[in-house]
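TL;DR need structure tokens for one chain.
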Amino acid sequence: MPHASASEGASAPEGALETRGLEPVPDEARTGRVRELFPTWVAANISVLLLTLGAGLIVFNGLNLWQVLIVGCVAPAVSYGLVGLISLAGKRGGSPGMALSRAVFGRRGNLFPGSLIWVARWGWETINAVTGAYAVLTVLDLLFGVRSSTPLIVVTLLFFVAGTFLVSGLGIKALRVCSRWAAYLFGAFSALVLVYLIGHTDWSAVFSRPAGSTAAMIAGIGTLAAGGLSWAPTGPDFTRYLPRSTSGRAMVGRTIGGAAVVVLPLVVMGAVMAVGTPGLAHARDPVSFIGGLLPAWIAVPYLLMALVGMVLINAMSMYSAGFTAQTLGIRVPRAWAVSVNAVISLVLGFLLMVVATSFLGSFVSFLTLLAVAFSAWIGVFGTDMLRRRTYDAAGLMDATPSGAYWYRRGFAPSALVAWAAALVAGLLFTDVEWFSGPLASTWIGANGLGWVATTVVAAALYTVLPRARTRTSAGTRTSAGAQKADTPEDAPYPISSSVLPLVSLTKISTKGSDSAAKQA
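>> reply
TL;DR here they are.
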């Protein structure tokens, strides 16, 4: 019998409140539909920060509109392509991403990448909490002339974090419903803003801008892609309720499509705004400029919808952070584990709003480090998906030395060595406000490709290092990731085919494609 805490092995959701923990979702409870991924990843990108990043591409990177279009297309395709491919593990194993990560790093070894990813989420949730609070402050100023103050900052942060905690605590069903409606409403208001900009923009100034350097464009792709990469360990959390026959191609396509349909227009809109208002990229407050550029009848509802979107972004992040906390051994139900991140984002958000002098500079530096932290995990976990044929359901929950993923005293040495070496390599090429690696001036570092170097080093080392051995139900050991079921019907968690996470999409069986067509 597997040994797992009560917090990990909760029952399946019966109503609106999800009570399931880390344990794999049984086939009879897999009622999700692949089409639900599209609004999920739309909601994950409803943030006015994309406007600020688009402005930064003009002001800091010196790009013109056509280069911004290229960046806006390539960045979500690359980053959310990886998110979609990693998400395939969710339908295969039925568990959250960081629980499946135990199969790669070992029961104890998974604590190292898990801890780093958990801490990185604090920063992401803090950034979004601050942006949401600024949106509330801007609306109060536009409607009632209420100016920002320290007490008001505290109140708005509490308001935002409380809303986030409520939605994320309810679970996957609440997130699906909120994401669907937010996608529709935010899309409608974004179209309204776009129409307004078309009629009130000096397009001669926009199109007369000279082109920036190729290096600046590549760096812009890296900065914009960093936010998407941070969702990779989260991807399986939103696909574990999908039937095993779900089309992998459809999963990846809807993940990329949902993200791109938001990222591209918002980045372009931010770039267009920055041509006439260069100070937008330097603003300490990343939201208030919207009130100055748009009339109140557009700005207020748009900011309110953006506020809903940012609540959903943080709710999705905290939803997964609750699972991550459970994998670290915090023995509380997922909804309570979410509260830890809520408190942390509240405290750090207050410090960022009161102390920081340059929001965008801090944000870009954070994104750069975030990309390195998540790319190391992506490189190892994604490479493991090349060979893995099954996830042992009992082994994922077994914390004893007899468990399938105990490896060597709970650690998978090859995975941990590859992960740690990749982290070091990535930092060597990294250049941010408060840190500059010794290789930051090289071509890779200057082009903002430290995250690519991190992924490549992690994947290459994990490929060549000897694999740890897992225990089978018969007590023998096989190479990690090489278990093979006798038949699809006999396999507890079968893998339909190999996945090339950095090269190609999944090969889909005829049966899987037919089923996916019915679901979609």
